[in-house]
Design goal:
The structure holds two protein chains of two kinds.
Chain A: H1 2-17, H2 28-34, H3 38-66, H4 72-98, H5 100-106, H6 117-129, H7 133-161, H8 173-190
Chain B: H1 2-23, H2 25-29, H3 41-46, H4 50-71, H5 80-105, H6 107-113, H7 124-132, H8 139-169, E1 171-172, E2 175-176, H9 188-250
Antiparallel strand pairs in B: 1-2
Helix pairs in contact in B: 4-5, 4-6, 4-8, 5-6
Classes of the chains: A mainly alpha, B mainly alpha.
Chain lengths: 198, 251
């Protein structure tokens, strides 16, 4: 029961306080790309969740071994990149061998769901919080779920934000940024952020 | 043979013209922060002061440039799905000397930037632009093009950092300017809104200048066309008048 609570706690923290897009701007360009089509939201969401959760489980043990090393923070990106690459290659080989149809469909954008700031950022944040195994997993699931929620919000707003009502120069990416900013402000309010102005 | 010799310099001039036109793509037309928005996390979250902006810009320049140039030697025979792994590994290898160097120069700032420093290795300039643009060009052009793209990012990063420092703390590069401050612009939502407004304004300015240039070119073109027309018509009149005069004289 305690383990489950730890898992849920870490997942909620990652989803709302450390939201990949609204609080950390991790993988914003991928989110813009994914928000255009409903299918890509699901595909990228599943891909990112899978890679983050599996990689988090592996990095938990690596962090345990190397956390005390003085230069760990310097080689950390290289180690995590290798971990993510192994997960990516292994999964691709399995999909290619047993599900060739799916492989053909995901081949074009699969790298986007692996080598992006959301995946590596989630692993770095996990290391910063340094919890136990269930917290690592919960945090990974939470970051991916937070990313999925953010992309879904962007998808809902996509048509309105690209409508002729918006001045031409602001249509697309600029107004999307402002929209994310407002959503981010709402998320900060949810967690009780104080700007210091009052 | 003579024709071929004449064609050669024309061809070179044409490619040179294209080369210079494409150079400024990275600075304005395809600026990675304000126009395409493919690299924005470090600018939105981490570039909250001028110094941080400078450190991020240096790290981005070193890691991206070295990675893109090194990876250009990877054979194209390897499928992109696997080549992308090499890009990521090369980027993280170059991250090591870069962060050690920057730590010697700006120890506290590197620590304050936090996870956004190693995240530079996953930037879209390395993973997307390489395939869609840089590796389609010859090596010299690619190097110059990459430098301009990096310059485009660096200028915006430093400017955003400086601007946020002024409005958040009333200082610029640590020098006190005034007491007024809006601390919300230091937060991620402030960063998003600021970069969004900057991007919109930059696009509006770019479109205005482009349209003005097109209008000027069109006007110049029209003026030249009118001149040629007048010249041609006066020549025709002269040609028409000359036989009449000649026939008059004969009479």
């Amino acid at each position: 029961m305690d383990k489950l609570l730890l898992f849920i706690n870490a997942a909620m923290l990652a989803m709302f306080v450390e939201n990949a897009i609204f609080s950390r701007a991790l993988g914003t360009s991928v989110a813009f790309y994914a928000s255009r089509k409903k299918e890509s939201i699901f595909g990228l969401g599943v891909g990112i969740t899978y890679v983050i959760v599996i990689s988090s489980c592996i990095t938990y043990f690596i962090d345990g071994w190397l956390a005390e090393w003085q230069y760990f923070y310097v080689v950390m990106p290289l180690i995590y990149t290798v971990v993510v690459s192994i997960v990516y290659t292994g999964s691709l080989l399995i999909i290619w061998r047993f599900m060739p149809k799916i492989f053909r469909n995901i081949k074009k954008y699969v790298h986007l769901s692996v080598f992006n700031a959301a995946v590596l950022g989630a692993l770095f944040l996990n290391t910063t919080y340094h919890g136990d195994f269930f917290s690592y997993m919960g945090f990974g699931v939470g970051i991916a779920a937070g990313f999925f929620i953010a992309v879904f919000f962007l998808h809902i707003a996509n048509d309105r934000l690209n409508s002729p009502l918006i001045p031409e120069a602001f249509r697309g990416m600029p107004i999307m940024m402002v929209f994310i900013g407002i959503m981010s402000l709402a998320f900060y309010a949810l967690t009780g952020y104080n700007t210091g102005a009052i | 043979m003579a024709q071929a010799k004449q064609m050669k310099p024309l061809k070179t001039r044409k490619s040179n013209f294209k080369f210079t036109r494409d150079l400024f793509d990275g600075l304005a037309k395809q600026n990675v922060v304000l126009m395409t928005g493919i690299v924005n996390a470090p600018v939105i979250i981490a570039a909250t002061t001028f110094k941080k902006g400078v450190v991020i810009a240096i790290a981005f320049a070193l890691i991206s440039f070295l990675t893109i140039v090194t990876c250009s030697f990877i054979p194209k025979k390897i499928v992109y799905t696997l080549r992308v792994i090499i890009y990521a590994v090369v980027g993280s290898v170059y991250y090591i000397p870069t962060v050690l160097l920057l730590e010697q120069m700006f120890p506290l700032t590197v620590e304050l930037i936090g996870i956004y420093m190693p995240l530079i290795i996953t930037n879209a300039l390395i993973f997307s632009k390489t395939e869609s643009r840089f590796y389609l060009e010859n090596r010299l052009k690619m190097i110059v093009d990459v430098l301009f793209f990096i310059a485009g990012f660096s200028v915006i990063c430093v400017l955003t950092g400086g601007f946020r420092e002024v409005i958040c703390f009333g200082t610029l590069a640590g020098i006190k300017l005034f007491d007024f401050s809006i601390s919300a612009f230091e937060s991620p939502f402030g960063g998003f809104i600021l970069v969004g407004i900057m991007a919109g304004t930059f696009r509006a300015l770019y479109n205005y200048l482009r349209n003005r240039r097109i209008k000027q070119n069109a006007a110049q073109h029209n003026a030249e066309a009118v001149k040629i027309y007048h010249k041609a018509s006066s020549q025709d009149k002269k040609d028409a008048a000359t036989p009449a005069l000649q026939s008059g004289n004969e009479k």
